Amino acid sequence: MEYKPQEIERKWKERWRETGVHRAHGKSGKPKYYCLDMFPYPSGNGLHVGHWRGYTISDVWSRYKRLHGYEILHPMGWDAFGLPAENYAIQNGIHPRIATERNIANFKRQLEEIGAMYDWEREVNTTDPSFYRWTQYFFVKMFERGLAYRKKMPINWCPSCKTGLANEEVVEGKCERCGAEVTKREMDQWMLKITAYADRLLDDLDKLDWPEHVKRMQRAWIGRSEGARIRFQLVDHDGEIEVFSTRPDTIYGATYMVLAPEHPLVQSITTPPQRAAVEAYIEEALRKSNIERQVVDKTKTGVFTGAYVQHPLLDRKLPVWIADYVLMDYGTGAIMAVPAHDERDYEFAKQFQLDIIPVVKPLAGETEELYTGDGVMYNSGPLDGQTVAEAKKAAIDLLAQTGHAEAAVTYRLRDWVFARQRYWGEPIPIVHCPKCGAVAVPEDQLPVTLPDVERYEPTGTGESPLAAIPSFVHTTCPKCGGPAERETDTMPQWAGSCWYFLRYADPHNDKAPFSKEAIDYWLPVDMYIGGVEHAVLHLLYSRFYVKFIYDLGLIQFDEPFQRLFTQGMITLNGAKMSKSKGNVVNPDDIIAAYGVDALRMYEMFVGPPEDEAEWSTNGLEGVARFLSRTYRLVSAHAANPSRERPALTKLRHRFVASLTERMEGFRFNTAVSAFMEYVNALSSEAKDGIDRASLETLTVAIAPFAPHLGEEMWSLLGHESSVFDATWPTYDEAWLKDDEVEIAVQVNGRVRTRLTVAADIGQEDAIERAKALPELAEWVEGKEIVKQIYVPGRLVNIVVR
Ligand code: ANZ
Ligand code: ZN
């Protein structure tokens, strides 16, 4: 029979819709398995074959798990608030709500096309008031616990998107969304205190089955540094300068101090003769981004303030400088400079001819003028002779005696700027009352709905477009009933994605974000599949939210995603597929030509799923031909299978064993090769007929990859039920044993014993097995092995001296 994929696919999609085979009821009594995709932003461009890779991987995995007897939760939804959706709407002159609705419809059509087993009854949409009511609810909970707070501070500002940005949204000094250079702007901001969770976010990474590189990125982002806070008394001036140092051991080598140009002390300590130079320098520094300021090999710049501090342990006065290599938002915004042992301080001291006093010498070798390694203390009074590690502790103890220092930990992680001056987001559910201050909107009055407006473009004044809608702004204070104004900032686009995966458990609940029963059954997520670009954004934020919700007592787990898989990108001619590069392969075209099963199968075949892979139309055609051959083979034998014979049984067990191993190892590309080899092998047996077990095994095994074809072949084999109600095939070890041969085991060319091995055993294994033989000990023990030889199928020879 001819393989007509489009016909088969249409038929089975319809059938699935009728029977609801993909619904997750949670009542089957089977163990659950929650396999989650990172839900997409429904952009105007639709999905391309690069996006489909992740969706296919997760669908193959969900179906595979289902065949192992799990009840599967495999949901889908829309992360539809935020800058991308809004920028698209503005560019195309369509209201974001309408643009979003349209884009969702197109995305949904495409995702249904893929034949994924999504339970569409559980679809969530972050822009739906019934959803963001709970996004606002969690904000209120944070506010009540002091974790959401307002602060005036200089924040990242994108002049093109006309909004504040979180640190995580600034990539190499540029706006993550539009690429514009990010500047600083001082504004009142809503912040979330993610730093309160820094230690837990760091420590709990150890319990996760995540790719090591993602954990590494999160660790670096949280950036825990251990050291000390040390205070230096100002000379002829009240007050002191507090620094954070990871090297308190080098205290005797401190020769000058540096403040960040923005440091609040700068104004008061600068002496009149230095004032003009200091002012000019500050102005210059404020124009630079943190990234520019941290460039390692640029010429160091700075200005002397005219002030001095007293060294806490020595009769030494240290000049106080300002320099832009010290950042205001790290540590205390001030350092003690130790030019002999810190590279930046060294360059600065050279530049401005400041003292360099070495206090650590290497354990071996010559002392160098700049030495940043481990070693032994000298020039350091009571610390002399100690190692760096010992001296770190001893220095803190010493300084602590006079109240000049204590041990301290600093994080790179900053609190999360959680406000956008944009229209398309969840309104922050706060009312500003002249009497009561910031008051949360009571839970029973949520959601604060986003008003439908004519003008949604950013204002650029630093105020959200919502501020221009009097009917939205003017309200009464929930506490005192007096006139008050609503907060007009909206939440950042990450707000909904921080907890959406919890809502899938119970998406229609209008009393609570989810019921305890549903959340206890379905969560946590067992497998999360998506792009690595979220390593420090969504994947950190949602861990923070889950820990917070755990602390509220609403859930019993404190990590959302047990296992994470990040798929590689699909490229075309070496370039990332993207609309802006004009190199997008549209799945709709491919489906029309080859069918969706071929596309899915090719997405899996294209390369190791975690690696970047290059799209090739030839490769796709090859896979399409393979599916056609599979269909012809099964349809030719389905009606009258032959009797089973050993050759077929052996092939089948070996196929199942190698396929299962590849599946478990997430090596889907080689799993597809296993299918190809198996179908080839069956084809060469076909003249003597093929038995039912072989045909059924092939059909069930291929179904996760090519689900429509799987169903079709299953029904050709006479089954009424869905192939996804079948069970993943098992194998018997006995059939895996290779043909065996007996080989000679020699020592220095003389046969000492014999050994039975698999005929196709490799050299290393053969030698390993031979050496492990106890009867060989007498000849080799205590001797030096100089050579080991394996002659396949014949002998192992061990040459000793
Ligand atoms: C004295 C010292 C001696 C330092 C030495 C280093 C080496 P991490 O590992 O990143 O935490 N530092 C502290 N605050 C800073 C700021 N706001 N801007 C720029 N640099 C700052 O690095 C901590 C070290 O970076 C601190 O330890 C401090 O210099 C510097 F041989 O203090 B150190
Ligand atoms: Zn009030």
From TrEMBL:
**UniProt cross-references to CDD domains, sorted A to Z:** Anticodon_Ia_Leu_BEm, LeuRS_core
Q: Where is the Methionyl/Leucyl tRNA synthetase domain?
A: 39-183
One Pfam match, given by its short name, reads: tRNA-synt_1_2
Please list the GO biological process terms of this entry. Answer: leucyl-tRNA aminoacylation
Q: Coiled-coil ranges per the record?
A: none
Molecular functions per Gene Ontology: aminoacyl-tRNA deacylase activity; ATP binding; leucine-tRNA ligase activity
The Aminoacyl-tRNA synthetase class Ia domain is annotated at 413-603
Q: Which key words are in the record?
A: Aminoacyl-tRNA synthetase, ATP-binding, Cytoplasm, Ligase, Nucleotide-binding, Protein biosynthesis
GO cellular component annotations of the record: cytosol
Give the EC number(s) under which this enzyme is classified: 6.1.1.4
Record's keyword annotation contains tRNA processing: no
Main localization (coarse): cytoplasm
State if Cell cycle is listed as a keyword.
no
Source species, domain of life? Bacteria
The residues that the entry says bind ATP are: 579
Where can this protein be found? Cytoplasm
Q: Which InterPro entries match?
A: aa-tRNA-synth_Ia, Leu-tRNA-ligase, Leu_tRNA-synth_edit, M/V/L/I-tRNA-synth_anticd-bd, Methionyl/Leucyl_tRNA_Synth, Rossmann-like_a/b/a_fold, tRNAsynth_Ia_anticodon-bd, Val/Leu/Ile-tRNA-synth_edit
- Please state every residue range assigned to the domain named Leucyl-tRNA synthetase editing: 219-397
**Residue ranges occupied by any Methionyl/Valyl/Leucyl/Isoleucyl-tRNA synthetase anticodon-binding domain in the UniProt entry:** 653-760
Q: Which reaction does it catalyse?
A: tRNA(Leu) + L-leucine + ATP = L-leucyl-tRNA(Leu) + AMP + diphosphate
Q: Where is this motif: 'KMSKS' region?
A: 576-580
What family, per the record? Belongs to the class-I aminoacyl-tRNA synthetase family.
Cross-referenced HAMAP family:
Leu_tRNA_synth_B
Q: What is this protein called?
A: Leucine--tRNA ligase
